[in-house]
């Protein structure tokens, strides 16, 4: 296996550490939002804070930091780390890539400033103004170039399945980003909403999901020390996700002002997404066969398997709520908030935590400082998320049925808002537990850099094998 | 030698992945754009086609700047949960909406036809302190807006009324 060059190591670590900082910042803003949901005057201390931390302005800041600062930067770090391992070829242009990481952080800071000043396109997950969009496109193109060049010059003949997922995602990401951020700039009305939702759904489906699945396929055999159950199954999964996922945008306007044929075209592929998610789960369970006992002592493996299960639940729940009748009750409610957090936090952030714990020792030469803290990280994340998810789901069902009874505006609507308060408080507590888990994670990483046990030579060579 | 076989294995992949992607783009983004219902305006769209720098236009910009669309939707569906919100929305209503403000979540109520519900004075009180009108409301107070911005925003909200020809749709 190719040893990691020093420049490559620096590039990977720069993206890793940056993403951790954004994880914390993004979750703090998420907590502020959750508290404002209960106590709208929270942090309204002086006109300045009231204005720049206004709910409507910082909600896109929260989603933007966690999608582009945390998940995407961590994904890039993962790509830069995993691709050389699977191709047995050191990363091309590592210094250039690291400078892209520096500019990426500048992009994030500019995005936060402009969004909290109220400059927004209103297109969800594409709220930033166009000069920033262009900057991000350049950054993504640079990363794509370095990754593809590395793959093209590979020393390993076989293309491991994870690489399929990575290459697909790197091809799709620039196009879908352009459709959501640039094409929407030139059109209006419902077609703009459709282009926006094409992007909004596929940034999850063809970037965060597909790269994440690639990481699952990379980590699972390494952590369980079993070979991947079925290569063919994973390829079926790849091509079905590529076929069906792109069609999912219109279900965000289900029952809305779109032609009937388009609603059907949006729903049928949603239901067919069962196929790719099932191939992933079948592969996870097949690979884990005879190795389930390893889970009890291996926290990264615990994170991967739990993440895969949450991915399955997401893909069972999503098609259900996109159907016309369930959508008529659940759309616009808290249910959707719970659903949206599941793939991003409980599925793919979990996969990333596993990747961090796995990769960090090989990058720093030191083991993770504390196994116990890793377990705390796991359990706080899982329990916090379950509290968060079940309160939003329950609250959503309540809201939906109350609206169907006619409580749609004015005082009756207000009654529904007030009845949701206990759920909003519970959701804040769930969020606080999730956040505490991440603080422990950061602390553990920080301690590992200084006080982690040094890897022996033997472990060094086996950990990258 | 090995270089050639490598290339051969990557090309069909790149072509296939791109092709499947663009089929989805054509079906869900491009074809709907050319659907006839997206290509014409109706009376509601004309009402919302505000002249640049009119109070309603400026008010819409305030609505966007403050992120009102984050908590309020602007579309009425033919379902029970929207039964008392007014005429059902059609694509033609949004012909001039740039950017569209359809929204995703109803943390607050739907505002498609909010102009039919309250008067200017009510909005003046409610925007400055929502809890004065609705004790227990979770809407932020917009008492930091300038008088100009507040009046513009109210003008925009009051303009959100169905055209007479679409009443009872």
Give an overview of the whole structure.
With 465 residues, chain A is mainly alpha-helical. Chain A is built from 17 helices and no strands. In chain A, helix 6 packs parallel to helix 8 and helix 13 packs antiparallel against helix 14. Chain A is globular, with a radius of gyration of 22 Å. The mean pLDDT of chain A is 94. Chain B folds into two domains: 2-34; 41-166, Cytochrome Bc1 Complex, Chain D, domain 2, CATH 1.10.760.10. The model of chain B is unreliable at 1-5 (pLDDT under 50). The interface between A and B is large, with 89 and 74 residues. Chain A: This is Cbb3-type cytochrome c oxidase subunit I. Chain A: Keywords: Electron transport, Membrane, Respiratory chain, Transmembrane, Transmembrane helix, Transport. Chain A: Pfam families: COX1. Chain A: The chain crosses the membrane at residues 14-39, 61-84, 96-117, 129-148, 160-187, 199-220, 229-247, 267-287, 299-320, 340-358, 378-404, 424-445.
SSE order and pairing:
The complex is a heterodimer of chains A (465) and B (169).
Chain A: H1 6-38, H2 47-52, H3 55-87, H4 94-116, H5 130-152, H6 161-186, H7 189-224, H8 231-244, H9 260-272, H10 274-288, H11 299-322, H12 324-330, H13 334-364, H14 371-404, H15 410-419, H16 421-451, H17 457-463
Chain B: H1 2-34, H2 43-47, H3 55-65, H4 120-128, H5 130-133, H6 147-159
Helix pairs in contact in B: 3-6, 4-6
Summary keywords:
heterodimer; A: 465 residues; mainly alpha; 79% helix; 0% strand; globular; B: 169 residues; Cytochrome Bc1 Complex, Chain D, domain 2; metal-binding (chain B); heme binding (chain B); iron (chain B)
């Amino acid at each position: 296996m190719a040893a990691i060059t020093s420049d490559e190591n620096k590039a990977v670590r720069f993206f890793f550490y940056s993403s951790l900082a954004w994880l914390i910042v993004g979750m703090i803003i998420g907590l502020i939002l959750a508290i404002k949901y209960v106590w709208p005057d929270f942090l309204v201390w002086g006109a300045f804070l009231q204005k720049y931390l206004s709910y409507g302005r910082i909600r896109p800041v929260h989603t933007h930091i966690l999608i582009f600062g945390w998940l995407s930067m961590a994904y890039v770090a993962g790509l830069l780390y995993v691709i050389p391992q699977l191709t047995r070829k050191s990363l091309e242009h590592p210094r250039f890539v690291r400078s892209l990481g520096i500019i990426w952080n500048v992009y994030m800071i500019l995005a936060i400033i402009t969004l909290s000043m109220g400059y927004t396109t209103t297109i969800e997950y594409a709220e930033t103004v166009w000069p920033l969009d262009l900057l991000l496109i350049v950054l993504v193109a640079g990363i794509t170039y370095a990754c593809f060049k590395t793959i093209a010059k590979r020393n390993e003949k076989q293309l491991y399945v994870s690489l399929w997922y990575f290459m697909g995602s790197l091809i799709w990401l620039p196009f879908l980003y352009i459709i959501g951020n640039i094409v929407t700039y030139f059109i209006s009305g419902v077609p703009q909403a459709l282009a926006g939702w094409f992007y909004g759904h596929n940034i999850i489906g063809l970037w965060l999901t597909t790269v994440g699945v690639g990481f699952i396929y990379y980590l699972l055999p390494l952590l369980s020390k079993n070979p991947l159950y079925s290569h063919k199954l994973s390829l079926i999964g790849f091509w079905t996700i590529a076929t069906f996922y792109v069609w999912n945008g219109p279900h965000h306007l289900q029952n809305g002002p779109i032609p009937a044929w388009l609603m059907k075209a949006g729903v049928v592929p949603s239901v067919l997404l069962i196929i790719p998610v099932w191939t992933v789960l079948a592969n996870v369970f097949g690979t884990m066969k005879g190795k389930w006992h390893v889970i009890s002592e291996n926290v990264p493996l615990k994170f991967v398997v739990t993440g895969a299960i949450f991915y399955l639940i997401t893909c069972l729940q999503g098609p259900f709520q996109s159907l016309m009748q369930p959508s008529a009750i659940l759309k616009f409610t808290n249910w959707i908030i719970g659903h949206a957090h599941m793939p991003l936090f409980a599925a793919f952030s979990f996969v990333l935590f596993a990747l961090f714990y796995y990769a960090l020792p090989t990058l720093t030469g030191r083991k993770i400082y504390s196994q116990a803290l890793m377990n705390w990280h796991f359990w706080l994340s899982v329990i916090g998320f379950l509290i968060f998810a079940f309160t939003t789901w329950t609250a959503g069902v309540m809201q939906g049925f109350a609206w169907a009874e006619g409580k749609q505006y004015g005082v009756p609507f207000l009654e529904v808002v007030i009845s949701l308060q206990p759920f909003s408080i519970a959701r804040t507590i769930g969020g606080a537990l999730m956040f505490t888990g991440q603080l422990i994670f950061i602390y553990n990483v920080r301690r590992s850099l200084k006080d982690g046990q040094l890897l022996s030579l033997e472990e060094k060579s086996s950990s990258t094998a | 030698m090995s270089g050639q076989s490598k290339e051969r294995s990557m090309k069909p992949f790149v072509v296939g992945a791109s092709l499947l992607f663009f089929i989805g783009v054509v079906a869900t983004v491009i074809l709907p754009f050319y659907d006839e219902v997206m290509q014409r305006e109706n009376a509601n769209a004309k009402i919302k086609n505000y002249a640049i720098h009119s109070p309603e236009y400026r008010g819409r910009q305030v609505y966007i700047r403050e992120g009102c669309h984050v908590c309020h939707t602007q579309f009425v569906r033919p379902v029970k949960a929207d039964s008392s919100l007014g005429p059902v929305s059609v694509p033609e209503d949004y012909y001039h909406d740039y950017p569209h403000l359809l929204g995703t979540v109803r943390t607050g109520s739907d505002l498609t036809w909010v102009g039919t519900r309250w008067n200017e004075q009510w909005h003046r009180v409610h925007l400055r302190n929502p809890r004065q009108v609705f004790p227990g409301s979770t809407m932020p107070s917009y008492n930091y807006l300038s008088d100009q911005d507040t009046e513009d925003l109210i003008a925009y909200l009051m303009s959100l009324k169905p055209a007479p020809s679409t009443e009872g749709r």
